[in-house]
Task: structure prediction
Amino acid sequence: MKKMKNLKKLTLLHSNDLHGDFLAEKVDDKLIGGVSRLSGYINKVRNEEKNVIYSISGDMFRGSLIDSEFQGLSTIEIMNLLAPDVVTIGNHEADYGLAHMLFIEKCASFPIINANMYIKFVGTRLFDSHCIKEIDGMRVLFIGILTEEVLANTKSEGLVGTLIDIQDAASEVAKICDAYRSEDIDLTVLLTHIGIEEDKKLAAALDPACGVDMIIGGHSHTLLSEPCVVAGIPIVQAAVGTDQIGRFDIMVDTDSNCMDSYTWQCIPVTEENCPRDKSLEKVVKAYKEYTDEKYGRVLTRFPRAYTHPKRNMETELGDLLAECMRDQIGADLVLLGSGSIRKPELGPVVTFRDFMEVFPFQGPVMGFRLTGRQLRHIVTFMLRDEAFEDDGAERCEWFQFSKGFFCEFDRKKHSIISLKMNGKEVEDRDVFTVAMQQYFFDSIGDFLDLPHEEIEKNGRPIEIATNAPNVLEEYFRDYESLKLVGGKRLIIR
Result:
């Protein structure tokens, strides 16, 4: 007679890349998202189901004034009320500095895990590598993974290291799983913040003997209709923000220590699906009232809303911000990091709140010189085929150019047809003054294939402004209305 399986149900809810998205938004006359209804759904499921775990795969921080005004402390208070069972680190958790990240971790009432961030000089891990959640006799092992490619901001401090590539990450997972080989682990979950394509590579690189059952990821903001399955491992994400939440309903075989079956769906956070959490609303409301009072003033007006629909393309909003920064600073050219523009549009009325949510990242602006030959090289490198792919914005850095710059580019031949500054064809010996946010300048070798040593041959780079948002704010305040002028900077053939 065939032995019956010992099956138990586990419901695993998950979010990623919340980015301070605390408030509901009206879309087609319906309210979508917000932590009140996200919490309401989580509480509803916790009441309906016996065994529920809620996880977050990184990037709780950045994206809203409520987060940036209080440097993440507001976010941790709100997350404590949301009450995740386990969280892994994303790259934006490091935005306010290494010391602040460790301080905030002490304020969290939930475990934060990461297997591969460490202090370079002593090799000490910054966080617990994993945690085991025990529920209804089941033991679920969570392991947190972040790779070096998405850790550029923390890496710039020079104190923190992490695993270099996916193979090393897979090896680290194997070590942790080996340590629990003799123990009764019923389910093994990787919480990653490396992007969907890297998740696929990681799944393929894992030794099946590790027994990893699923990967719950983040970073690439991918909205899925069904899990990606690689080497038998389902990989999921829940896009970005609080507009949706992922849900696994899993039958766990507690004798064989594995998933017997599962269903997965991405649940819209709407009025129909999710009740409100009024106690959490009160906390968010207090923060919102404070920031509304401070940031409600009007800075300027545009004739219409200017858009930034994708990071890896020239955008109206990118053109305008680069041009305003150039006018304020007085450089020949501004290279504005496309990833520093965090919302898809701005205007027509631009309040201080709107501006800071669109362009939140603090930090100096660096000035330096580039020759015509170097300018040609970095533009060619930026426009490589990889940058145009769907996930190119996560793997390649794209820049917005100020007025006066013009490039016509042949993608098939991967070569520049024409490169002009102020209507004149650029010669190799020409020299231009260039401005760029320090964050991007510090990694210009990685982002644009131009080592600092080559730049310094043209003269010593200098800090020309202490804070990039302040440069634009000052410019906006000087003009009651602003209009984008000039044609496209980039023509891609």
Notes: The first strand starts at residue 7 and ends at 15.
